Amino acid sequence: MKFAVLTHSASLFQLLNENFMDNAVRCQLFHDDISLSRAMYREDFCAIFIELRCLDGNSAVLDRRRCYADRRAPLIVVGTFNDRASIEMAYAAGADEVVIAPYTGPELAARTYQTLRRFGQGTTPLDDDCVTVGAYTLERRTASILVGNESVRLTSREFAIAWMLFSNAGEYVSRRQIAAAVWGSTEDIIGRTLEQHIYKLRKKFGLNGLLGVQLRTMYAHGYRIELNGAQAIATCTSAVPQDVEIASHGVPDQPRGAACCLAPELRRPAAAPARVSAGAPYKNAERRVRANACRAPCCRRCRPGGAAFRRHRQGAGFPVRWQRHCLHACQPLRR
Predict the structure, then answer these.
(1) Which of 69, 225, 267, 268 has a CA positioned 20 to 30 A from the CA of residue 96?
(2) Contact in structure between 33 and 93 (CB atoms under 8 Å)
(3) How far apart are alpha carbons 95 and 30 in whole angstroms?
(4) pLDDT (tens digit per residue) in 41-55
């Protein structure tokens, strides 16, 4: 097994190493939450120890644990708690077990293994595994999203970003938080990649306010999910007929352009395809061959620069024996 330890105390890390050495447990030391967040993406830890003074509500480690529920290791907070409020704060931040100093090595090991057994049996309660904002429902355990009654497929990182935004609806989530939690990096490095993921979320979810939910961007603040109200959701849902095919983002597909706003009798009829006469003169052969070459002709020799094209330029014309093989360019050129 492998344990991750986020602490600035050398004595605490040494105590953990001494108590878990006999059970083939390797402890890995981290000095900041960014490095631990990167390691959580690459490696699977059986438990995570965080010293109380390193615990922050906006920590990248806590954000990553909230986003990736399938790779969620138990979190054990160790430190000196002055009052009941500080203990409740640790549990509210996402701690699964709290060890109050002063403590001994056997006590720390016993609490750790008890937490691991509780996680192995699946008895750890998670009350925030489902988030519903308007017509959008996110299930963290299954990493699935429902828009109305339609399921939208997302990648793991797209779902992680969506979970951070929807679980903090009405509040701005900074680019730094998303970069640290999802990529374990800084916003300067993955800024362009983050913008592309935000664009994909807007496109897949239709977060433009039609379903009552809008994804807003504010400079120097980040991104925020805004709920316009249930009235917009009811109006949009009732306006969709039953026989209209619904797209993946829950909005019916409609024709685009100015023609869709005109009455059927005022729309311009579709242009009929041009017909080429079988007795077309040879003076237009070069132009037709060039046009047909752009539409993938059937015979390579009829392309501009081919053998048949060079013979036509010399006045020899197209051989009749090639016409049964090339119907795209040669057949209209028969005398």
Answers:
(1) 225
(2) no
(3) 18
(4) 777 788 889 988 888
| Residues 20 and 109: beta-carbon distance below 8 Å | yes
Fold observed for domain 130-232: Arc Repressor Mutant, subunit A (1.10.10)
The answer to whether the beta carbons of residues 175 and 165 sit under 8 Å apart is no
φ and ψ at 310, to 5 degrees?
-65, -35
Which SS3 state, helix, strand or coil, does residue 118 take? Answer: helix
pTM over 0.70: no
Angle at 212 (CA atoms; ends 206, 213), nearest 5 degrees: 60
Structure token pair of residue 258: 């100015």
Sequence ranges of the domains in the chain? 2-120, 130-232, 282-333
Strand pairing partners for 226? 214
Percent of the chain with pLDDT over 70: 62
* Strand pairing category for 136-139 and 130-133: antiparallel
Inter-residue contact 184 to 40 (CB < 8 Å)? yes
pLDDT recorded at residue 187 = 80
Q: Which amino acid is at 124?
A: T
Q: Which helix (H) or strand (E) holds 230?
A: helix 230-238
